[in-house]
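Objective 1b of the project was to move from sequence-level analysis to a structural picture of ligand recognition. The entry below was assembled by the postdoctoral researcher (A.K.) and checked by the PI before modelling. It contains the amino acid sequence of the target and the SMILES of the bound compound, pyridoxal-5'-phosphate.
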Amino acid sequence: MDFIPYGRQHITDEDIAAVTAVLKSDFLTQGPCVPAFEQALAAYCGAARAVAVNSATSALHIACLALGLGEGDWLWTTPITFVASSNCALYCGARVDFVDIDPTTCNISVEALAAKLERAERQGRLPKIVVPVHLSGQSCDMAAIRALADRYGFKLIEDASHAVGGRYRGKPVGSCEFSDITIFSFHPVKIVTTAEGGAALTNDPVLARRMELLRSHGITREAAEMTHASDGPWYYQQIDLGFNYRLTELQAALGLSQLARIDEYVAGRHRIAARYDALLAEFPVIVPHNIPESYSGLHLYVVQIDTDRTNRDHRTVFEALRNDGIGVNLHYIPVHLQPYYRAFGFQPGDFPAAERYYSRAISIPMYPQLDDEAVERVVASLGRALRG
Ligand SMILES: *Cc1c(COP(=O)(O)O)cnc(C)c1O
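Corresponding predicted holo structure:
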């Protein structure tokens, strides 16, 4: 039987035509598609600006730099995320700490964050940046986190890699109503894809311009940004230490074409989630908890083995599904338990809710083209695995 992956891209003839048109055009990079994609993305999210880059990892890096993160600073995030959410701080020479998750939403716990901030203020080591991650596509409680940011004076980067196409309190994720910068990933398993790719959205034109410079070597051709008058028409100045984090025209054309279907994709994900919710109701698993403020992007559908209702072992269930051709996955191994992070002194037991989640979570297949038959096959396989 066919293997069912946990996620996969959907490419249409329109996507192929859009990319082919770029191949036949004058510009493979630095042409009109990247700004068109940025404008479409910003308009979709209701943000002033979008800066497209070659990955969400790059977006996180330049977002941290634009906000002035450097040596001696702290960045805090959740341990239940992809390593990129915290690595961005290390790139800048800053230090990382984590805040445990809320066991119900599996997002960063606002109570734990408030308590940790109170302690950090007394110790004089408040974070410069906090990165809430919208796990599976469900927004964190951004209004409450914004209130803490205002009180303690830190900046906020939303890692919305899972959440493009979702909403919070009726507004699109990416509007940056409650944050300084929001970043997206366009990796093929995410909601819409550019193959590799990402973006940073903001309502602050100064931050947007800083990120544009950092994306492309820190080089400007704007007279107003130069230290002295131009030497001639060839002239540019490097005014910051940037990188080559640019998205290509091919990728932007694909992204623009995909963006036209984003609402359809997210709606498709919601139909599948509703089906899973119904079919799994009697299973000894905990299905995703939805908060009313959030309309999830539903990148992932994570079930947790309910250890109060079954003594089936997490790993056994996971392996049984894989052996059945179901491409389950685990999002995520708590970042503080990675060897690279243990070297900073983190240990098992540091973030108990995150570690408990890790001992029970399984991401089951979720993508809009998953048909009823495939959903039923996943559910049947999970049922067998849980019965043993
Ligand atoms: C995928 C992902 C990233 C990194 O995205 P890339 O585009 O692959 O760099 C960062 N954070 C989270 C939460 C992700 O899921």
